[in-house]
Amino acid sequence: MLVYESTKQYFIEDVINDQISSMIEKKFKDKMGFHTTKNEIKSWENSLRFMQGVLSDNSIPDNSGVAIEFKIPYTSKRIDFILSGKNEADENSAIIVELKQWEKAEIVSEKEAIVRTFVGGGEREVLHPSYQAWSYANHIEDYNENVQQQDIKIKPCAYLHNYIKNDPDQITSKIYDYYIEKAPVFLKGDALKLRDFIKKYIKYGDDKETLYLIENGKLRPSKSLQDYLGSMLDGNPEFVMIDDQKLVYETALLFAKQSFEDGKKRVLIVQGGPGTGKTVVAVNLLVELTKRNMVCQYVSKNSAPRSVYSAKLKKTFTKNRIDNLFCGSGNYINSDKNVFDALIVDESHRLNAKSGIYSNLGENQVKEIINASKFSLFFIDESQRIHIKDIGSTEEIMYQANGLGAEVDVMELSSQFRCNGSDGYIAWLDDVLGIRETGNSEGFDLDYDIQVVDDPSVLRDLIFEKNKKNNKARLIAGYCWDWVSKKSNYLNDLVFDKYDFGMQWNFSGSSTWAIDSDSVNQVGCIHTSQGLEFDYVGVIIGPDICYVDGEVICDFTKRSSSDRSIFGLKKLMRENPDEAKRIGDEIVRNTYRTLMTRGQKGCFVYCVDEALGKYLRYRISSLK
Question: What is the CATH topology of the domain spanning 225-413?
Answer without folding.
Answer: Rossmann fold (3.40.50)
